[in-house]
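User: Predict the complex.
Assistant: Input components as received:
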Amino acid sequence: METITKTNRRDFLKLGLATGGGLILGFHWNTSSASSFEVVNPDLLDTINFNSYLSISSDDVITIFSPNPELGQNIKTSFPMIVAEELDADWTKVKVVQAVLDTKKYERQLTGGSGAIPHSWERLRKAGATARQMLMEAAAKKWNVSSASITTDTGFVIHAESGKKVTYGSLATEAATIPVPAEVKLKDKKDFKIIGQPIRNVDNQDMITGKSLYGIDFYREGMLIAMIQRPKSFGMKIKSVDASAAKSSAGIIDVVTFKNNVAVVGKSTWQVNKARKLLKIEYEVDGKIESTEDHDKLFKELLESKETTVRRKDGDVDAAFAGAAKVIYREYQCPFLPHNPMEPMNFFAHVRPDGVELVGPSQTPDMARNEVAKLLSISPDKITLELTRLGGGFGRRLKADYVLEAAELSSIMKAPVKVIWTREDDMGGGSYRPAVRYRFQAALDVNGNLIGYKLRGVGINSGNSTREDNFPAGAVDNLLIDSVEHKSAITTGAWRAPITNFLAFAEQSFLDEVATEAKQDPIQFRLNLLEKAKKAPVGAIKYDIDRTKVVIELAAEKSGWGKKKNVAQGFSVYFSHRSYVAQVAEVEMVKGKPVVKKIFAAADCGVVVNLSGANQQVRGGIVDGMGHAFFGNLTFKDGAAEQVNFNNYKLIRYNEVPEIDVHFVNNGIDPTGLGEPALPPTGGAIANALYSATGKRLYNQPFSKQEALTGVNLNPKG
Amino acid sequence: MPTYQLKINGKNLQAEVDSDTPLLWVLRDNLGLVGTKYGCGIAQCGACTVHLNGVAVRSCSLPISAVGSKAVTTIEGLSEKGDHPVQQAWNEVDVAQCGYCQAGQIMTAAALLGKKSKPTDQEIETAMNGNICRCGTYHRIHEAVVLASTKISK
């Protein structure tokens, strides 16, 4: 049987120093101050408080640890590209190693919020630049020339005058004795050779041969497999358990009840899965038992609630609305969504008297470890957590519930245990994108100017369902944004582009409708508002007006906005997670039905690190946004999800994606993240294009269920 | 439990499992071939796709008792060196994001091209529609299938 080879620092060092000697550069991943860079004596590694390593072996292998969880956002390729750029390395000689969780060496070992690249950009650059400078100084010392006369080129140190040229590896041992420079010069961005290129994923060969190991693939000799029956209805708790049939089922070792869970533990996944079906569990009510139809009624009540939380207030909205020539009032609603990463939740835990070993997929390994420490009442120092590759996350793996289950069960069983969720467990198990309803109101004056704007968001376990400082805040004199939250037993959590994944659709659809009422072109209408925000800003403006304008204009230009015949276009623009994305969707009528043919995207995420990965993030985000806008629909009956597998919960498929044309502004601004920002604008661009094609406005998602209201068959393929 | 003699990736292997155990779990739990992935368990997502006598099948829904003497090929056995034209194309086009569904995508594409080296767009669509990619890499999947087709047709 295959096991995952645990890569710890010692193994890595053996790897990095296999041929004897070499430069090991330790650096604090959490700071870019040069003073924290030090050369590490490998023998002292365990006693020095370092965070990460870049090594150059004497046979020219450059190894870079990537500390953040890799779930498809391509961080394991992009991080090392940044280091390699400033090191002026030969990219083909760079090896990337996934680091284990070690918060003393790394900070923010977290994947979420599109934050990895923006957070690490500068220190990754300095890490590479520091090593490069030390190599140059080592050469200067060795050749007895001034370091200013030394240059580098793709893995070589060069002294042009004397014609000397040697590899980095041949100088690595000497470079390790050079004092770490206090300051290093970073490259001019126009000299980038690696950053901005389409660089293939470093794990491609493993992924295409089935060798990439995900958490669900982890195996340890003697490991037990467990599946857990959780209450199917939110708001219920266990009353009684009859596990006799399950316990006597073939291959079952034990059935254990803990908290609200009944775990079936055995040796093989299939036997455990079969035995679990034999459990007889009675549940009793322990909270609110809710159905989707209750929520539909509730939303309407909450929109009239007097108990709102005001998020932003500018000017005097009451006066503006009282004096308006025209008032527009619209509501938008979205359902709960499960995350549905292709790899369902799973984790391995081995709780031993002397410590705990955790292995698996997590977006927040540090939080998972701390929660396990709390659960088991031990010090986090006693817990190791090894990250596997993640088969998607979309926010679901920001939570540690499934890690805690594995740890608790291993502790009970006194054995190594891997907990596996089935798709049904995954989809029925909670932590959903919250269901939300919005009411927008706009006041126009006689000239069609937007003089008042109101937004109320009501949601279920949604926290603040608005983003009060986003556009058009800052461009409207009189504005009120507030929210109401309903607490429910149905659990919710962050879902790719939290809140904005639907709010952007609602807002951009509404602005389109307001523009139409104001008899203005939808793009010009937004540009006019931006102009107003620039000339006479109202309150705090947290988005960059110029960057917003640039993506709007780029999307308009690339799509030939307003210049096409027989093509209905729809526009949307959104700022989220520090980046700006504008989109134009194109719909054509085919045999009397609207078909989404093409989507143009203009994205400003600052510097594009990896053009291949960046394109994937934008296209993937658009496909995700489109798929969920059309199909995503998780409904509840008596507290239980009504869709728990792909037979009645539809994800977008191969034949349903339109052509997507991606353009980057690439303005040299430090990178601002791309895992999420392409998703929010998509629903609005498509809805606006569908309106343009059919004359029907969409107010609710999923679009595919709106035929009764609009009379239009809404599927991407017509 | 009965013992099954299996022909997998050109090797004769055996597994002692319940007769209703799906091939997927025999591969993963008994034979350590974890490249074939679990996604839904009901033949809806295609992550578990393997070849049975060269035909793409969903191993999550195929009981081991139905495999018989048919040759099973998994992602690990698609090529000796990981250089099947479909694998090459997948690398060159840089298809994968999280990568979890890609073994199934590759096996589906390889079976299609094994049957017909120059499929029409419609035939590609029919074949690839059965495989879900949650990251949304469908554009590159299309590009890679077309590229692999040209490699095979050469």
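The two ends of chain B are 48 Å apart (CA to CA).
Let me know if you want any component modeled separately.
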